[in-house]
Protein 1
Amino acid sequence: MRKIVIGWIFIGSLGVFILPWYMINDGFFSFSWLFEYELENYGPSIFFALSEKKWLLPLVGPLIFPIILLFFKSSRRTYSNIFLISGILGFVYFFLQGYAIGIRGWNYQIFETLFGEVDRQFGIGIGAVLTISTFIFYLTHGLASRGWLNGDNFIVGSIWVVIILVSIFVFIPILNMFVRAFIGSEGIHTLASFSDRFINKGLWGLDCVFSNVNCGVVWNTLTMGILTAFSSTFLGLGFALLIARTNFKFKKLFKVLSVLPIITPPFVIGLAIIILFGRSGAVSTFLEWGFEVERSRWIYGLSGIWFAQTLAFTPITFLVLIGVIESISPSMEEASQTLRASKWQVFKTVTFPLIRPGLANAFLLGFIESLADFGNPLVLGGDYNVLSTEIFFAVVGAQYDESKAAVLAIILLSMVLIAFYVQNQWLGKKSYVSITGKGDSGFYAELPKSVKNFIYFVVVPWGLLTLIIYLMIMFGGFVEMWGVDHNFTLKHYINAFSVTFDEKIGLHWTGTAWNSFSNTFWVAVLAAPPTAAFGILTAYLLTRHNFMGKRAFEFGTMLSFAIPGTIIGISYIFTFNTPPIEITGTGIILIIAFVFRNMPVGVRAGIASMNQLDPHLDEASATLNASSYQTFKNIILPLLKPAIIASLVFSFVRAMTAISAVIFLVSARYDLATSYILGRLENNDYGLAIVYSSALIVVMLITIVVIQLIVGRRKLGRRDQYVDLMQGNSG
Amino acid sequence: MNKLKKIFFVFSLLFLASYAVPTYAKGNLTVYCSVEIEVCEILIQGFKKETGIDVAMTRKSSGETFAQMKAEATNPKGDVWYGGTGDPHLTAASVGLTEKYKSKHFNDLLTAAQNQAKFSDYKSVGIYVGALGYGYNTNLLKEKGLPVPKSWADLTNPVYKGEIQMANPNSSGTAYTTLATIIQILGDDKGWDFMKALHKNINQYTKSGSAPIKAAAKGETTIGIVFQHDATKQKKSGLPIAVVSPTEGTGFEVGSMSIIKGARNMKEAKIFADWALSPAAQTLVFSSGISLQVPANTKAKGDPDAPVLSKIKLISYDFEKYGNKDTRSKLLRKWDKDVSNLPK
């Protein structure tokens, strides 16, 4: 314990006495300051504190105060009190000074009249980050030595770190956005104007029930969310059963097919659907030619959105469900078979109930994804308006009405909150444990015939449809103009990804796509590991430990997922454009945005898998004197490999294909693939957009395979093992 | 496998380091560009060549740029906002997001471009002008045996039921210009009657302003109400589109440029603003073959395929009145209440 404490005091001192306190111009992690060292620019906080930034001085006190514990013996109580007090003082003061004094001196007039003028300060740098980390350690160490959560440093520390990070990067930006929306430039909005925005026909109207006028946006959104969640969960389950429980010949092909849509950049699926089913699309043309069905615009509206979203989100539900299905121990099914249950009874009373946590989580994810989706309603929505597009255009459209956006976002959030509550109710307090650590062997029961038939008749055609759409997309990259001029050409590939060899400079990346392509790739690679780590850790804390405000905490981690990307993007600019945390225009802000936006998937996948792990496993480990960290690392993590892979893959893929959240966060140097694609699509440059998308798809597939190689497979009992492409776990 | 993990970890750290570098730096102009990406690139390359000043350019639509500038107001990161329809530039000027500057090329500019500067108290200036109109898919029109539309009034003919697309004025500046144009041509009462009659023929109100003509080009709708240069561009890329300049006369947009208040590189920003309005730069951009608007500088050469302003009957569009925030929200609310709710 002493060693850890000394280590942290050392880290904190490094921050105050040696490393640059403020953000340096060439970047947070850059080391060029070592070579051109100047105190004015790269000084540690102690330098500033002793010159013109005196307010930094009080930070030193709480930082070095705990040192006295190394020299004097103290009771447990004093020990924890000293850490607690130092931690809280340091933590609070750190943020107080950070937010009170900004880029132009005092941020609030009242302080200036109280204390007089002060010097300005910039965004925090590496020194400040180390110091604040030390304060957080003091705080959690103090709480742990007080006996919180069995005095477990690791648990208390993790909980606080997660809470603090989620607060900084989720709560504060969102709160900031809402506050600004309601206290607009014209002063505080009256309650009347709020209720006017909240209660109106455009939102809640029910006219579509008895006439052909559109219903309110809220009902539209709800209908879309429920339909999509239902159909994608249904199909996801079908795919998962097909792959985990049948002897279908083309399993591998279907496995790839089932996940292809999530690795497709937005808008491309929508475009493919228009070219297939639109008024001038291939299918419509065929129907007119063959059956004299008049061409229509049926695809624009709910039907089109539902279709595209089901296609896009089935892979997500599939990823959640397959992890759960493969974790079910065959012993229970065997037991029920021994008791002479029919195949159908086994499925209905054993298998299906054990899948419930997976179903519930899949449904919730499908619902939230559908609500937050912006690309498909934009391309295929027609006059069917939903909240996500309304919010986007309230911010960037001709109205510039952030208050309206905020009101709509609150409605959207409430819908998610309700879905979350319903999901919890449905799951109830039942036990879904099936990985107990006891020996299990045997084979899964065969699926009942009706279920098998369903899978073959529904899932297989759906898979084929996906295949056709993807062939169409790939085809689009090789023709002059997709949907118009189908002469073969390679010009799009050359335009986007050409490489020339020059004798002077060697390889020269001349294609227009290279810059954003490599940016996107590295941002996604960097964002994936922290997203998964953070998500799984949070899931572990939520399922295995009880602490105050756990439900609120759980919901908080879901927030960033449910809030439309546009709102996240704008709120990040509001919050992180000025000191203390000034990261707009850097690549870091993209990574952070992705980590906190995609973390919920890690949490959900983690929780679903963790519900299946018998807590006795943890207890056994604890009985053998393992610390909670050791238990987490050696017992839980290896058993969670499917969940880890799911969240790694998902966060990587989402970072490669996200659009609405990053529109405001990309900068000239850090442009991303999706904004490039969107620009090309706006220009009718389908060829280039498709070529780019195909390249992204290939890179994502390769990366997914590499992720599996790195994480490795989970070995469970003596069940037959097979290598599989997307999950990398045993079946 | 452990080795793989370690290599991966080291790589990540290295790249993380390179990603923490902020884009904005001193002596390095940051331009928010709201015209098409190719046009932005031509513009930036030309400027670099001419002045040697390094430019970081971000392309975003005008609505997105405006929202971003508003969010960044306390600590601006951009220097110049180039392009995009005039209204958001006027709004930005009225809420104090942009800097006053009168270019030395001011006297050479079209009246409309000069007016943009006058209305905004010189916090913005016009860089190009584009007239409103509509385009139709020639193949579809022939196939359905529909008459060739020539005027605004033709669009309310019931034969076009379900064949016309326009953007939603709530989300698109183009569509708002259309609404304001109609009201200015026909007057208040008749203008709204027109919008209601048009509503019956509309198959979809798109979100983005240029979407209708793209849908027409793909054959998803027959007629799309857009700016003429957007329609001309489709035609130029070989698609079956014909451009119509309505006989009653039509409104127009003044694409604008503003210097951002509190810009980190004010000196370079002003150099850029002067350069962008110079005949050379304007000719460079507007005769490149991809930007079909009319250049604001009368000494510059435009594209031969661009709509010729002298041949188009332009109305005297009242930007001061219809660019005003209150007029705008009044019109939009009325449109929401009286037009978009009607059954088709």
Note: The first helix of chain A runs from residue 2 to 18.
Protein 2
Amino acid sequence: MIKKEAIILIVIFLAVIFQMSFFPLFFSIENIPDFISISLVSLVVIFGFQNVWVWGIIAGLVMDIFSFEKIGISIISLIVSCYIASFFSRRVLLGEKLGGILTGILLVLVITFFNNSWLILADIGFWFQEIWRVRIFFFDGILWKFIFNLILFLILLLILKKLYKKKSSAKNLIIGN
Amino acid sequence: MSFNFFSTKLFKVIVVLIIAGFVIFLNPYNFFNPIRSAVFTVFSPLQKVVYGLAFEFSEIKKFMSSIGQLKSENEKLIKENRELLAEKAYLGEISKENEVLREELKLLPREKFNLEGASVISRDFHGQGDWLEIDKGEKSGIKKGMPVIVDKGILVGIIEDVYRNTSKIFLLNNPQSVINTIDSKTNSKGIVKGEYGIGVVMDMVLQSESLDKGDEIITSGISNNFPKGLLIGNVEDVVPSPDRLFKKGIISSPVDFSSLRFVFVIKDGNQ
């Protein structure tokens, strides 16, 4: 059990390093996909909120440490993302094909919008009067960010579903609660 | 089956939000620095490798999307252009220096900079892309406030936080980086800082002073640690401040902040 948790912890550290040292060189600053957040959202969709939320807090803590943010900023961003995802998870997996896809798209859109708003607010020190100055930058990038996040979400969901099916072929998928 | 609110998702989320909000509100920024320093010490070599790999991949990507040789020629020209811009700024300053008593200006000879070369290991991935992390820290003699340059004297930022083996740099487009500057042609004084949604601006230039498009902006040497004559960029546009008391120049830097891999920290700018 401890071994499994240690592995997850290492994966979180690696994922955060990947997010901070790899992605920024491939995307312009406003388009960088939310790798950590989308990964957690995918995990919530497959395994459910109750199995993922603690890892969300840990991932947020690691992100705050690496990104020089005040501790708590990313924790809030990730835990809220997990919570939002838990509402959509059943529909993403159980809905009809088109319904499931549309719900997935809506989920990624909401997550992208929330993360962008929250992190920009944190970046300007919650100085709400300044938000209008960032608006141009904010809306310029959000469309591409959403598209990249959506692609990432679909890839991760596909991989996680396959992995989970392989592991529990006899059982049905656990649907997020 | 009875409903227990304390085991619901909502309760857990609320508790986490309250605790995290409390930590954000009460916790001073530097409280977690020892933990950060330890984490960076362990992970900075890995970050350096990952960043290096990403840089190489991104170079390949750029290369593939360009037309063969044009790419390398372009890079060479950009590099030469940067060097020439820095050189021009430097020479311009030297000629003025000769005109207005060399003794008084005391420009720091560039070859006497005590530079510490460093690799970029991570960068801002949200917000404005206005900070970088480098693989040199306290151990290499880096201190808060030291200027960071590329090539031959083009300023890119200031050291903000220093840990044992890593440091955080505020780039020029960071609203918290403020540098005293002058227009190398007209000698108009102002401060260069980052501004949300714009990038780099030269602010607080008196209306009576001259600031024109294309002018080179260099460090004035007034700020602590900052030698005079480091190139910041060229004036792209000039606008009045909202109160019309000052002018504001929008500055274009010759450096693309998003593709920096190596930088140099000036350790003794005041010599």
Note: Residues 34-162 of chain A form one domain.
